[in-house]
Design goal:
Chain lengths: 232, 232
DNA sequence: CCGAGCCACTTTGCATGCAATTAGTCCCGT
DNA sequence: ACGGGACTAATTGCATGCAAAGTGGCTCGG
């Protein structure tokens, strides 16, 4: 018995909705972000087709979509490789992300529902309850973090903002993991999240915007520092 | 002689490099933005394949890319249609665009080269030299406008910003054309462009940012007003 | 020993065939 | 006459074949 279907959501098994290309896109995106394919690795269509149980056509389509997300680089007639992120890329990416997420927080402040606020609280609570730095814990923290940011962006109710964020939201987990392994940064991040929730609950758009911008830019600076320390 | 090639760069004509899918993508994007395919029109792969002299495969790939740009909507097994923009969409889109282009202007202020400044001046001069409101003039004005904004974004030298803008930059010309048909709005827009260039030349990042934001938000408000007048 | 050129294998990109699904139409029953 | 259901035609989505371009290795010459 094979277990490749573990990478799919249960929903997509019980309800095989959507095209094959979309599934390959989702799964491959997850695999890249999850670090299964390291940056620079070549992505050959035939190997991926075999892995996902389809032909090369949907794989090719998925790769083009991933190129649009900035996760993959395709050179005509030369193939696709997982995009590598250098320090400059990350700074650029985080600054754009800071702008967009700050705007999302601003817009969310006046639209967010009690349910969404409760979901944000729950995400913070779950993150707070976790302690230690096992691999499993780091994974859960990252998932919780993504959920938090996802709720804020969704509350902004701006399709274009969501779409624009897609182009900067995809960063391999390998990079982000350093946040959640460092307990100091983890605590700072959690405090920032609490602050953002409080701002949103108060309906204070500008405060929420500033809090989110601070949060993302803090993450940027920490990431830069870590990269400099590692490369020097 | 036709002038559809105005939407392409000269380079892509003289050097037919790249895959077939990319050409279809560029051409089809130009055709949609140019208004050749009205919103809501179904895009059948076979017809497009015949038009572009390829098979259905590259057309299909181009359609998926255009969906990523928000110009096309694809429903699985039901086909692709040119996306329709309602008033809410346009407001959303212009607000995100205002944020991103303002940031681009901010970043450009400290990086822009004399050559780029000269190119901006030239674009303004060309727009100013044009008068009247013939169809040809409107086309040229829109092309000049796009060139102006393109130079500013390029001067920001932020790949992620450029990428994020792609998702909000594609608006069918039919909508934008109203700016340039109204000579009042045209003059205001031109004055705003001059102001932006002056800010950039002065190296004043915040001023450039504000000027650009004002420019885009002014366009947004004018567009909203026009749409309300037309629909009421 | 090293480099340039050539050849074979690999891989991509496009075209086309085929099955599955949907839209449209017509017929039939009520 | 009108609504429902089945059939047909059209269209999508996927698989695969094939040609072209690229990559790597090998040989041969310097």
């Amino acid at each position: 018995m094979d277990l490749w279907f573990c990478t799919q959501t249960v929903a997509s098994v019980s309800a095989p909705v959507g095209t094959s290309a979309e599934r390959v896109y989702e799964d491959l995106r997850g695999a890249i972000i999850g670090g299964e394919f390291p940056p620079g690795e070549r992505l050959r269509t035939e190997a991926l087709a075999e892995r996902f149980g389809t032909s090369r056509t949907p794989v090719r389509e998925a790769l083009m979509l991933l190129e649009g997300d900035g996760l993959v680089e395709i050179e005509p007639r030369r193939g696709a490789v997982v995009r590598a992120f250098d320090s400059n890329d990350l700074v650029d990416l985080y600054e754009v992300r800071a702008i967009l997420e700050a705007r999302a927080a601003f817009a969310a402040a006046s639209r967010i529902t009690p349910d969404e606020l409760a979901a944000l609280d729950a995400a913070c609570d779950r993150a707070e309850a976790l302690s230690g730095s096992s691999r499993r814990t780091v994974e859960t923290l990252m998932a919780t973090n993504e959920e938090f940011h996802g709720i804020v962006v969704a509350a902004a109710a701006s399709p274009r903002l969501t779409g624009a964020l897609r182009t900067v939201a995809g960063i391999p987990r390998t990079f982000k993991a350093v946040f959640w392994a460092e307990s100091d940064e983890c605590r700072r991040s959690l405090a920032a999240h609490r602050d953002i929730v409080a701002s949103l609950r108060a309906g204070s758009a500008e405060r929420a915007e500033s809090a989110m911008r601070l949060h993302v830019l803090t993450a940027r600076d920490f990431l830069i520092e870590v990269m400099r320390d590692r490369q020097d």
